[in-house]
Specification:
six-stranded mixed beta sheet, globular, single chain
Length: 205
């Protein structure tokens, strides 16, 4: 993996690092057979943020059980851009940022698959998984997004919609900054040295 990002940010306080917090809604669980229906991204750096969200036309029928979960149906996405049309924008948004989601292997897998398919681009980055942080640092009975959010006093409303879940991921990350700093983990180097951040590609889901 290119070391330029690490060399630039190794000693940067974690609160000042450039993040892309995100969530996807999809038609299933494996990229290829499953397609993306909605994406939301919050670009966050040193307390400043920008937001992006869009439906994505999956070019297939959204299964009824997925609609029941996400409340996204075929009519809602029929006029949305396809992943091929939106992929260049997504690549630009994620460039030179730490990828953050609740279950990085799942979300990263979709980006990795479709960046290769649509852009012939091999996507690698640093990625921070709030699910992994919860498992390692909190020891809760359940590490589902809504439960971890509840632990931190955040009320996740209308889960399984991309921006709602991304807002929850942001809330979690800001709380995890406190937890990490209490343990003396203050910089990107500390995250890497303590194996709390994925480098290059995360493990397969």
């Amino acid at each position: 993996m290119n070391t330029e990002f690490y060399n630039k940010y190794a000693n940067t306080p974690i609160r000042k690092l450039p993040f892309a917090m995100l969530d996807l809604e999809t038609t299933g669980f494996k990229p290829g057979p499953a397609n993306i229906t909605e994406v939301a991204i919050i670009l966050y750096e040193d307390g400043k943020e920008d937001r992006f969200e869009s439906f994505v036309n999956p070019e297939c029928h959204i299964p009824n059980e997925i609609t029941a979960l996400t409340h996204i149906n075929d009519d809602m996405v029929k006029d949305a851009p396809t992943i091929k049309e939106i992929a260049p924008t997504l690549r630009e948004l994620l460039n030179n940022r730490i990828f953050v989601s609740h279950n990085v292997p799942f979300d990263f897998g979709f980006f990795d698959y479709y960046f290769k398919k649509c852009l012939n681009y091999n996507y690698e980055c640093y990625s921070l998984c709030t699910l992994m942080l919860s498992r390692k640092l909190l020891k809760l009975d359940s590490n589902k997004l809504d439960n971890v959010a509840r632990h931190f006093g955040y009320n996740l409303i209308d889960a399984h919609r991309a921006m709602n879940d991304t807002d929850a991921v942001k809330a979690l990350l800001l709380k995890f900054f406190d937890v990490l700093e209490e343990k003396g983990i203050n910089t990107l180097k500390d995250l890497v040295d303590n194996k709390l951040i994925y480098v290059g590609k995360p493990p397969c889901r």
